[in-house]
Design a protein that fits this description.
Blueprint lengths: L14 H12 E3 L2 H17 L4 H15 L3 E3 L4 H19 L6 H7 L4 E6 L6 H14 L4 E6 L4 H14 L3 E2 L7 H15 L3 E6 L7 H14 L3 E7 L4 H13 L4 E5 L9 H9 L3 E5 L7 E3 L2 H9 L1
Parallel strand pairs: 3-6, 3-7, 4-5, 4-6, 7-8, 8-9
Antiparallel strand pairs: 1-2, 9-10
The structure holds guanosine-5'-triphosphate (GTP).
Guanosine-5'-triphosphate (GTP) binds next to helix 6 and helix 7.
């Protein structure tokens, strides 16, 4: 027969009951009212940092439900506690949707050529970003060729040509108004015959409504079979950047995002919306107009920026 263990009694005046009373004074349970004001303040801060309304609401609701009913030390500052929890939940969201691949290693291990395709709407900094990526890859000892597959805008090819000349990188151009997929195909063929490691494909700045350009983008993907598809978006575009990201998600299933112009006065909250809503990681950040103004995205960078 099992021996019955005697429960310690908490008689009045016993050490157990004194500890209980002590704990009642030491801890308190968080009530909705206690954190309502802090949550509202954070809502304003997140929205001002360009995190979308939907994502802001979702994150704060999750935060509230994880905190309400929790017993915390009375000496703890609730304001700090809520902010700390928010930082933790943002870190978790970003860590879960991180770009885990090491690009340089991946390129070196892949059969040649490794193809990277860039797209995004006009003026986000696509051409400049391609030049920055080309510079980064060249510095890592890789041979690069660029495909000027924006045959839609003549100036785009000229702009790329200037960058490529400065960086001493070959460029394959097409005829104005010509087939951009065949330019990409030619660049890949040239890379194969010349032992080039990476092909960077520029594409025309597609506007959301432009159906022809959208079909064209799909065709470039079919023909060039990129190893990596990158969407370029502009931190200054605010919530419009998220709309662009959603639109392109339906056209091309891209691997990640390069967020440009973070050196300008924008907090870049779209990073969080992209991770939470689309599960898309930001891979690089554009931090200026020079070739070396491209840095890998880090969760710490984002936390520091949002909470500074
Ligand atoms: N401050 C800053 N400016 C940038 C950055 N990236 C690009 N730019 C500038 O943004 C402007 C537009 O850049 P482009 O590279 O021409 O943009 P694009 O998307 O190729 O434009 P289209 O060819 O019209 O589609 C240029 O003046 C760039 O110098 C960045 O990270 N920071």
């Amino acid at each position: 027969m099992e021996e019955k263990k005697e429960e310690p009694t908490k008689e009045k005046g016993s050490i157990g009951s004194k500890l209980n009373i002590f704990n009642i004074f030491r801890y308190r349970e968080i009530k909705e009212d206690d954190i309502d004001d802090i949550i509202e303040e954070l809502r304003t801060e997140l929205l001002e940092s360009d995190v979308s309304l939907e994502v802001t609401d979702k994150i704060l609701e999750d935060l509230k439900s994880s905190l309400i009913g929790k017993k915390v030390n009375r000496s703890e500052d609730l304001d700090e506690l809520v902010k700390k929890s928010l930082k933790n939940s943002i870190t978790e969201i970003l860590e879960k949707n991180k770009f885990e691949r090491n690009l340089i290693d991946e390129i070196k291990k892949s059969p040649k050529p490794y193809v990277i395709m860039f797209f995004g709407v006009n003026g986000v900094g696509k051409t400049t970003t391609i030049a920055k990526v080309a510079y980064m890859l060249k510095k890592a000892g890789l041979k690069v060729i660029v495909s000027a597959s924006d045959t839609f805008r003549a100036a785009a090819q000229e702009q790329l040509a200037i960058h490529c000349q400065k960086l001493e990188i070959p460029l394959v151009k097409g005829k104005y108004g010509g087939d951009p997929a065949s330019v990409a195909f030619d660049a890949i063929q040239a890379a194969k015959s010349r032992g080039i490691d990476v092909v960077l494909i520029d594409t025309a700045g597609r506007m959301h409504v432009d159906k022809d350009l959208t079909e064209e983008l799909k065709r470039i993907v079919r023909i060039s079979k990129p190893n990596l598809k990158l969407l370029v978006i502009d931190a200054l575009a605010g919530n419009d950047a998220l709309e662009q990201a959603k639109y392109f998600e339906n056209v091309v299933d891209y691997d990640g995002v390069i967020l440009t112009k973070v050196d300008a006065d924008a907090k870049g909250g779209v990073v969080l919306s992209l991770a939470y809503e689309l599960k898309k990681p930001v891979i690089f950040l554009g931090t200026g107009q020079n070739y070396d103004d491209l840095i890998p995205f880090s969760v710490d960078w984002f936390i520091e920026r949002i909470f500074s």
